[in-house]
Amino acid sequence: MPTFPSQAAPASGRTRSPIAAFTAHVVMGFRRWSTYRLATAAGAFTNTVFGLIKAYITIGAVGAAGGTLMGYDAATAATYAWLVQALIAPVNIFGWQELALRIRTGDVAIDLARPIDPQVAFLAADLGRAAYSLIPRGAPPLLVGAAVTGLALPGAVLPYLLGALSVVLAVLVSFAGLWLLNTAAFWLLDMRGVITLYMVASNILSGMIVPVHWFPDWMARIAQVTPFPSLVQAPVDIVTARVEGAAALGVLATQLAWFTALVLVGRVVFRTGARRLVVQGG
Amino acid sequence: MADGTWRPYRVLLGSRLRSQTTYRRSFAMDLLGSLSVGALEFGEIYVIFTNVDVLGELDFAAAALLFALATICFSLADMVVGHADRLPTYLRQGTLDAFLLRPLPVLAQLITSDLSLRRLGRTAAGVAVLGVTLPHTGITWSVTTVVLLVLTIVAGTAIFAALFVCAAAIQFWLVEGAEFANAFTYGGSYAAQYPASIFALPVRVLFTFVVPAAFIAYLPTLALLDLPGPPGLPSWLGWCSPVMAVVMWAVALTGWRAGLRHYTGAGS
Questions:
Q1: Is residue B66 domain-resident?
Q2: Could you give the CA distance from residue A280 to residue A105 in angstroms, rounded to a whole number?
Q3: At what angle do helices B60-81 and B179-192 cross, to 10 degrees?
Q4: Is A219 a domain residue?
Q5: DSSP symbols for B93-129
Q6: In chain B, how many domains are there?
Q7: Is residue A268 predicted with pLDDT exceeding 90?
Q8: A11: pLDDT strictly greater than 70
Q9: Has residue B53 been placed in a domain?
Q10: What is the mean pLDDT of residues B159-182?
Q11: B199–A36: do the CB atoms touch at under 8 Å?
Q12: CA A174 to CA A126: how far, in whole Å?
């Protein structure tokens, strides 16, 4: 087996601090996704067209209910629809399978050999991806929404500050949940069924399809015990000031708790899986 | 003669079907996944109707009928031509050149390159909703309504299939922007599941006459249940879905031919 220069000469010189490595991964994630401009435009366009349909469905439902439905009027219901469409890309609501594919192909061995923890590296890259997608994928649906149906947004600054924090937490919870889902690839050869079931559950229970506040009791109770409302309903509620003050802090705390729990379980499962991993070939 | 024409397609399709059903457990999981996507979409309508009695002048039974028709048509079209959205991959890798060398039309080869049987899970969800809701819709059964129901499913499937072909044709120019087309295929499917009467006029016109989503299920539902349509959309338009299907296929095939002529190969 040939020896590569990098293997022959051990990494010399300065050792990078963990924070610098983390930042480097965030930047790489940002640059990786910002390369495909046309794909970004196409995604934003599709999100906007779906927003148009969704906004009229929610407005129609509110109208059929007599003008208000569980605290939503026509304007706030439309705003909900447009905000959801703006969050789809940053929060990665349609999923992420990169780790599962790397486990299947054996490429995960390279990730394990790197001097940075794989979960931390992927998390950093995901933050970079989310940071990139926030404006190009989020602004078009909101601008079209403002022009077509109008947006009902709060005039105070605080909801936006807390909302920004909530969006970051939503990105983190989404990553942690998808990481855990992906680790199933250590045990399963065919992930398609599991991934579809996760997507179905997360799409409906996150409030991406219809607001969680419209759920009948039995569904609301199921949603409450899952991390999914933290992905979409939580940030939308906070940005629109539907929840304020102590209640808003409570929502943020719930998001943080789900992130912590999922990321820790994800670590343990990943390590357990990596220990039984056998990569063929060389 | 006729057998000689169809034999290659029979052989191609047979091989695809066998390859998909070889791994039984994977196939069962795929079917279940597809079924649950159908259930998820119905979940949206179910949640809305736990809060309201009518949406766009339709009650729950009528809205469920509308959903069922749209889902059945979309899933059947998705099964037959949905994989046309893989065209950008063939364009990038230059593998479309292999299609051009074979003595069958490229579009026919693309369609037979993968007939995704797993989409039938979603069809099953639509059929289940249809079966449960039909007795509650108060539909007056006659030869006319049966003919209209069958015609609707055939024409609706054809319209969605034409939309997929249009979407694939655009890829010859876009390649990297494949998702633009999703706005009209999947977006059309989403719009088709709801009464067009809830849309503001410009959006209603868009999803009736540009992307003819309303012709797939909403207008036929009005005609089936003998309901008056919103202003500008009389319910007799529900009988015009086949006309729309022919128009859409003419557009799709013209676009496809233009796209194929535009294609110059990847140089590989």
A1: yes
A2: 9
A3: 150
A4: yes
A5: HTTHHHHHHSSS-HHHHHHHT---GGGHHHHHHHHHH
A6: 1
A7: yes
A8: no
A9: yes
A10: 88
A11: no
A12: 10
Rounded to a whole number, what is the distance in Å from the CA of B239 to chain A's nearest CA? 24
- The rounded distance, in Å, linking the Cα atoms of A139 and A86 is 7
Question: Residue B77: which pLDDT band, with cuts at 50, 70 and 90?
Answer: very high
The range of the structural domain enclosing residue A61 comes to 17-274
- Shortest Cα distance from B187 to chain A (angstroms)? 6
A3 vs B232: which has the higher pLDDT? B232
CA B178 to chain centre: 18
Q: Is residue A7 part of a domain?
A: no
Whether residues A200 and B50 touch (CB distance < 8 A) is answered with no
Name the residue type at position A98. E
| Interface with chain B: mutation pick from A49, A133, A144, A219, highest number of B CBs within 10 Å | A49
CB A118: neighbour CB atoms within 10 A?
A: 19
| Nearest CB partner across the interface for A39, out of B26, B179, B187 | B179
Amino acid at residue number B62:
A
**CA torsion, ordered A159, A165, A166, A167, to nearest 10 deg:** 110
Q: Which residue of A has its CA nearest to B174?
A: A38
Q: How many percent of chain B have pLDDT more than 70?
A: 98
Q: Looking at beta carbons, which residues of chain B come within 8 Å of A48?
A: 183
Q: What is the pLDDT of residues A141-170, one digit of tens each?
A: 999 999 999 999 999 999 999 999 999 999
What is the domain extent for residue B237? 25-262
